[in-house]
From TrEMBL:
Residue(s) carrying 4-aspartylphosphate: D52
Keywords: DNA-binding, Phosphoprotein, Two-component regulatory system
Protein name: Response regulator transcription factor
Location of the DNA-binding region in this protein: 128-226
InterPro entries xrefs: CheY-like_superfamily (IPR011006), OmpR/PhoB-type_DNA-bd (IPR001867), Sig_transdc_resp-reg_receiver (IPR001789), WalR-like (IPR039420), WH-like_DNA-bd_sf (IPR036388)
Ranges of residues in domain OmpR/PhoB-type: 128-226
Record carries keyword Transmembrane: no
Amino acid sequence: MTRVLVVEDEEDIAFPLVRTLEREGYEVIRVDSGEVALDFIDGHETDVMILDLGLPGMDGLEVCQKARAQGYAGAILIVTARAGELDRVVGLDYGADDYLSKPFGLAELQARVRALLRRTGQPAVASQPERRPDQLQIDQAARRVFYGDAEVMLTGKEYDVLDILVAQRGKVVSRDRLMADVWDENWYGSTKTLDVTIGRLRAKLEGSEVAERIVAVRGVGFRLEGPPDA
């Protein structure tokens, strides 16, 4: 599986970045300092490092330079609030492969990561485990859901909720995460919206005779689990 190391000390930036890459199918490790990042890549094979320049302690440029000096051969994508051309040139001179200025869109970040993986000969999409016939299958590129040979027709929000649950199959996904991922943190409406969406989603899965089911975990969130006899 393709491994991405995120080196970012700001939680509000790191969290959506990590969850987006995980939903793409990458193994994502996040650290909050340059020293820890260098220790990690020294002992773990890493395909892409997404590196913030404004780190506490050791600056991102120094991390980039030391990573190359210690033999790191993976791709390095620098992200920074510094927008000057000089910073970009210096970053590339220090061994970075690409440069992305904050604020950036997550779709652009995904595209940059895929491009870097193509350049380094790594698979642009992480390999997915083989699905059993009694499991839902997600076509993320087309935003379509299949069960066996039949498509389960969903609205955009229903698809987004199910996509997250499938990616975390067997694990509880909190209500807060679903609201933040699907309706974003600026949503000021009632969280009943999530319950209504879950209710419609359950009905559609049952109507398509899907063996998997969405289970509510009281006071926490929801979990997608296999059939009762699985």
